[in-house]
Design a protein that fits this description.
This protein is mostly helical and 138 residues long. The chain contains five helices and two strands, in the order H-H-H-E-H-E-H. A two-stranded parallel sheet has the order 1-2. Helix 4 links the parallel strand 1 and strand 2.
Length: 138
């Protein structure tokens, strides 16, 4: 089990509990104990990982699983209506501010939302994003 991934371990536990329902109270107590131990030893960083994990789980439940058709189409490719140049500033999220849904905008984020002049040898990040958008997105 040491080489199993987190997902495999959880899936195995769920399977066991579905087959042997009488183990649920024992499992709940063990999970509570493990959670407390990890919280005590993990320190501040474990809360950050937990926040990311919880955020992903919430996205999956509230967005992904409720919109299978949308995400099925997005899995086939992207054809955004907008290309947005935005600042990398963590306080600003263009999708939230502009009300974009997944797949509606192709984002290029950098310091000061700059679009530098074309140069084959410098500033290749923004240029590569523009080139990709023009050549490959519909």
């Amino acid at each position: 089990m040491a080489t199993d991934s987190y997902e495999e371990a959880i899936a195995g536990l769920k399977k066991l509990l579905s087959e042997k329902g009488n183990l649920q109270p024992v499992a709940a107590a063990k999970i509570k104990q493990l959670t407390a131990e990890l919280g005590a030893t993990g320190g501040k960083d474990s809360n950050l990982v937990e926040r990311i994990t919880t955020g992903f789980a919430q996205f999956k439940k509230e967005k992904f699983e409720k919109n299978p058709a949308l995400f099925g189409e997005l899995a086939k490719g992207q054809s955004p209506k907008f290309m947005v140049f935005a600042c990398s500033d963590s306080r600003v999220c263009p999708s939230h501010i502009l009300g974009f849904q997944p797949g509606e905008a192709f984002m290029v984020r950098n310091i000061a939302n700059m679009v530098p002049p074309y140069d084959q040898t410098k500033y290749s990040g923004v240029g590569a994003a523009i080139e990709y958008a023009v050549l490959h997105l519909k």
